[in-house]
Structures are given as structure tokens and as C-alpha cells.
Amino acid sequence: MRREVIYILIVAAITVPLFLPLGLKQRITPEVEKFYQTVEELPAGSSVIVSFDFEASTVAETKPIAYAVLRQLFSKNVSVISLSMLAEGTGLGYDFLTKITQEYNKKYGEDYVFLGFRPQYQATILGLGEDFSRVFPRDYLGNGLSSLQLTQKVKNYADVAMIISIADGDLPQYWVDYAQTRYQKKVLAAVTAVMATTYYPYLSSGQFSGLVGGLKGAAEYELLLGQPGLGSKGMEAQSLGHILIILLIIVGNLTLLAKRNK
Amino acid sequence: MPLRLPLLVVSISALFMLVQFFVKANFLDSAYQEVLDWVQIIYLFTLWVGALNLIKLHAKKTQDKRQAFYSLVTLAGILLMLIFGLSGGKATGSAFNWVFENVQVPLQATMFSLLAFFVASAAYRGFRARSGEAFILLAVASLVMLGRVPIGNLISERIPDLANWILNFPSMAARRGILIGIGLGTVATALRIILGIERTYLGK
Amino acid sequence: MELGTLTAAILTLFIFSFLYRDNPFYKFAEHLLVGVSVGYFLVISIDNVLLPKITEPLFQQKDWSVLLPLLAGALILTRLIPAWSRWSQISLALVIGVGAGVAIPATLQAQILIQMKATMFSIIPPEGSSALLYIFERVVILVGLTSVLAYFFFSKEHKGALGSYAKIGTYFLMIFFGATFGYTVMSRLSLLIGRVQFLLGDWLKFLN
Q1: Which residue among A36, A219, B182, C11 is the one 20 to 30 A from C131 at the CA level?
Q2: Which residues from chain A sit within 8 angstroms of residue B36, using beta carbons?
């Protein structure tokens, strides 16, 4: 089979369900349920750190996840202090925050603060445990942290309930290694599918209090929230895409067998 | 500069961070925070070395007729972002943010989406079960792929259950073994660095 | 149609043209991405890191102590000049040393001790669970973990009992790689779905 035919097939498999939805039902996995419940148990008025630890290359997965997480947090009147340890995650995280906070009429400086970008994850994660304003003298918009209502009362890890890392790489692991080991903070991870299998040991040991993986995880989360969004829209296209890949593997192997028998 | 000086700096700074983890004292805490500040600033400069090297490389390439145009595009992109960002700010609605949202993000996202095509092509041409181990790999991959989408549940409820079980037990166990192995390697390498046995980070 | 959406769509199609073959449109888009990404990083690092951490403390608060990390950072830049690059070793040594120092207790605790603890289990199953399944699952984890560690133990040749046990580890590794591969395919397809949704929905408005 020529590669152009394969390319056309994959585009067709993904595009057709976008126009003809099959209405397939989602199942919620225990790890996403655990993530949702952990956030759901937060009392109103508590604060969390949300770290946008991803690049623009994975925005198709991280955007639905980030939207769902932020919607749950703001619907529960939980304050969000966010940052990014990757340059592109900074701009994207700020954009996502701006969009979702508008839906809930949240005020910058009171309900949420975006600290901005810091490189070198070890120094950042450890430094935040002592004093946010030492690591970030100013936030992303140039405000001194002492001038913002939220960061006047939330100064370090002792004042936050948990840390949520939305990531496409190793950073959730480092939040556990440094923030949890030294400061015993609860960590939740919402990651791209490619990283999800890497983190099951952390989920099993209780080091992660929940794990959302990929677009599928985002779709399940949206179902739990009762707000279907980008995640849910992509799942049927995902279904047909997977079927096609499996068929290609089977056909490829049968072709090999047939050649061998000749 | 004698070789001993960097090795001494490595050992002292590493031992300080180790001691500080276990010993609580005000003077240690403030020195600790100071060191973390230093590390962030120095690390930023290491990232800049990469960026400046790239600028240097493309500036050199502008001398070559065949590559000049594309290198000029790269340099123009850098200059444009610097001008927009440092003069017009980063807020939503700024020129800097516009270029980020409508040029950088779509380009980056599309570049990686090409992988879907290559994965599909490789599925047909390359994913061959030539051995028992390869068969297990492909069988588990197919089961997980089916189990993680709604269609798997439609075929049989056992498929997502089995996929879940595989992820939470045998796959997790193997990953835990890899994790512990990596952890032991990390600690061993860190000790080698502290003792001055490992010197590759110093370069030539 | 918004100019931004149109620009994004055109650049998306430039990248997709690579599927046919390498061409000037793709090369243009690729080089533009590199330039804009580097420029973006430089702006964010200057505006969000350099100014508040160095420039303001130095020039507005007259905090001269920032001169020392600034000097250490400047030493790193000597890597760009081969004749002076040895001076960068001191600053690099500080970063590496600090990294090694903090990594030891963190890794020992998070990646080794807690993971080992999580593998230990009571043979008395919790109430309400099937005893057989509970024990079986925990034994699977124990065998999987120890056989994979045996596989990665290279100080002894994989022969006899060790060899057989390491072989079991191979099968567990294949299960892990298979699961990871399945998720990787899922991830890659999701990225393509995102772009298709953008082109058909945001750009051409064919989708709701």
C-alpha cells in the first residue's frame, strides 16, 4: 500500500466522525475519577498551584485538560496561583486562564494570579516552598506580589492545598520529588497520553492523588463536570483512528506472513 | 584555571544542599534560598548560550547563497518577536501575543501532528510481530488502543476492563522497576559527581 | 475571516505540504517557527526573569548582591568564545553541584523508598475484596518489579535462575512498552485531530 493511501485513510478516519457523530458512550476510569474527587473535596476559599508545564506542540491535548481543570477549580471558588516552567507553556497558560476566568467572572489578583515563567525546575519548585515572592518578585504582568490580594495571604506551600501539574513531560515527577518529599504537598497530574503510562507507579503509591491522561482523560473529566468540550468532541475521531491503526498493523503482519509462505 | 576549582565548587555546593535538607537552622535557610536564586539566574544564561549560538549560526549562513533566504527568515522572526515583545508588551491583544497565538502555536502544533501520519505509515510497514516478545507488545498495544476509546466498550465491556488492569498491574510493575533503576542510577551518578569521579559536565 | 485564523491556517497547510515532499513552503514555515520560538523565549526570559530578578534589584533597589550571580551567569556566556570557555566551568559546576545535592534525598525518597514501600503488601486482603484476585494482583506487581530489576542487573551473566527470571522481566517490559506504544499512538492521533478541528472548524467553519 502506498504511503499516500495510508495518509488519506488516516485523514478520512479522523474527519468523518467530526461530521457524523456516532454518539458513543464514555467510561470513566478510576484515576480520572480520583482526580476529580480530590479537587471536588477542596473547600471554597482554598488555594491551589496550577503549573502549565507543557509546550505548544501538545496543545491539542493539554488545552482540553487545562480548560476542564480550571473550570472545576473556579466553579468551586478555589483560588489559583499559576506558573510555568516552560517558555511556551507561559503564553498558553496565560491565554487559557484568561479565557476560563472570563466564564466565571473571576478577578485577577483576588481569585487568580499568573506568576509567569521560571527555568530550572529544582530551584523553582524548592524556592516556591519557602517564599513565592522570592522566586517571583513580580508576576507575569509586572505586579509586585505584595500588591496583590491573593499573594498577600498565600505566600508559600504552607498556604496552598495542592499542586496540579498539567504537563507533557517529566515535570509532574519533579513536583513529587521536590515539593512532596520536602514539603508533603499533595500533587495531581494531568498529562498527555504519551506520558500517562510513565506515571502509574506514582498513582499506585499514592504520590499522585489523581491522574488525567490525554484527550481521553479530558473527555472523561468533561463528562464528570457535565460540560462536554474539546475532549469529548475528539473521542469518536480517536476511536476510528485507533481502529484504522490496529487494522493497518494486522494487514501489515498478514502481508508479511503471506510473503514468507510464498 | 586549575581543574580542582570547579570540582571543589561541585562538591561544596552539593554537600551544602545535602546538609541543608537534614539540618534546620536560620543561617542555612537563608544561604539555601540565596543559592537557589543564583542557580536560576545562571541557568537562564545557559539557555541564552543556546539562543545566541543559533543566532550566530544563522548569521553565518546568510553568507551562503542557497541558505541565505531561510536564515534571514529565522533572524527576522527573532528580531520581530524582540521588537514586539519588548516595546508592545505581552498582554492579550498585543502584537507579541498575536504572533505567538497565530504563528508559533499553530506551527508547533502542526509540526508534531505530522507524527500521526508517520505512525500510521509505520503501523503498516514497520510494526511486525517477528518474535514472541514483539507479538506481546503489539497485542497489548492493540488492546490498550481499543480499551481507551468508546468503541472498545461497544465491542465488549471486558476490553476496557482488561486495558485498565494491564495499565494498573503488569505495566505499572515494569515501569516501577525502571523507575527504581533510574533512581539508583541518579543517586550513583550524583555521588560520582560530588566525589569528582564524573567530570563529563566540564567538557573538554 | 480573522487575519489571525487565516495566517494560522496558511502556515498549517505549509507544514502539511511536507507530506507530499520537502518544499520551499515547508522550509519557510520551519525556519519561521525556529526564529519566532527563539525570539519568544528571549522576550519572556528578559521581561519575566531578568528584569525583576536582576535589573530592578540592581538599579532600583541598589541591591549590589545580585552582581555576583550576574557575574556567574556572564561567565557561562564565555562558552561562546572558545578561548575563554574554560571560565564557564565554575558557574556550571555550581548548577551541577546544587542539582546533584538536591537530587539525592529527593530521588531516594520519591523514586526508591516510597516505590518499594508501595510494592509491599499485607497477605490479609481488605474487607469486601476478593482474596484470590487481591493476592494475585499483588504477586503480579512483585514478580513484575523484581524480574525487571533482574533484567537490568548486568553485574552477573543472565544464565540459569537469574537468566530465566530476567526473561520473565522481558515479558513484563514488553507489556509496558506495548501499553506505552498504544498511548503514544493515541497521543499522536489527538494532535492531528486538533489540527483538523482547527482547519475545518475555526478556519472553514464546517463544524459546529
Answers
A1: A36
A2: 123, 126-127, 135
User: Cβ(A178)–Cβ(C103) under 8 Å?
Assistant: no
What's the structural domain count of chain C?
A: 1
CA-based nearest residue in chain C for residue B56: C80
Identity of the amino acid at A261? N
- Min distance C97 CA to chain B CA atoms (Å): 4
Cβ distance of B37 and C69 shorter than 8 Å: yes
* Cell 523484581 found at: C146
* Positive/negative CA dihedral, A67, A72, A76, A78: negative
pLDDT at residue B113, rounded to an integer: 95
Amino acid code (one letter) for A121: Y
Q: Is residue C145 part of a domain?
A: yes
d(CA B156, CA C182): 18
Query: Quick one: DSSP state of residue C109?
Result: I
Nearest CA in chain A to C37: A88
The complex's ipTM works out to 0.91
From the list B176, B179, B154, B156, the residue with the least C-alpha distance to B167 is B176
Q: Letter for the amino acid at C173?
A: L
Contact A192 C41 (CB under 8 A): no
pLDDT band at residue B1 using 50, 70 and 90 as cut-offs = low
Q: For the segment B75-88, what is each residue's pLDDT rounded down to a tens digit?
A: 999 999 999 999 98
Q: Which domain range does residue C153 map to?
A: 121-208
Residue C97 lies in a domain: no
Residue C10 lies in a domain: no
Q: What is the CATH number of the domain that holds A106?
A: 3.40.50
Are A6 and B121 an interchain contact pair (Cβ–Cβ within 8 Å)?
yes
3-state secondary structure C99-133: HHHHHHHHHHHHHHHHHHHHHCCCCCCCCCCCHHH
**Min Cα separation A25/chain C (Å):** 18
Q: Is the backbone of residue C62 left (phi > 0), alpha (psi -120 to 50) or beta?
A: left
Closest-CA residue of C relative to A143 is C52
**Residues of chain A under the 70 pLDDT cut:** none
Greatest pairwise CA separation for chain A in angstroms: 78
Residue B204 confidence class, pLDDT cut points 50, 70, 90? low
Residues in chain C: 208
How would you list the strands of the sheet with A112-117, edge to edge? A112-117, A79-84, A47-53, A162-167, A186-191, A208-213
Counting the structural domains of chain A, the total is: 1
Residue B74 distance to chain C (closest CA, Å): 4
Residue A244 belongs to domain spanning: 3-261
What per-residue confidence (pLDDT) applies to C124? 81
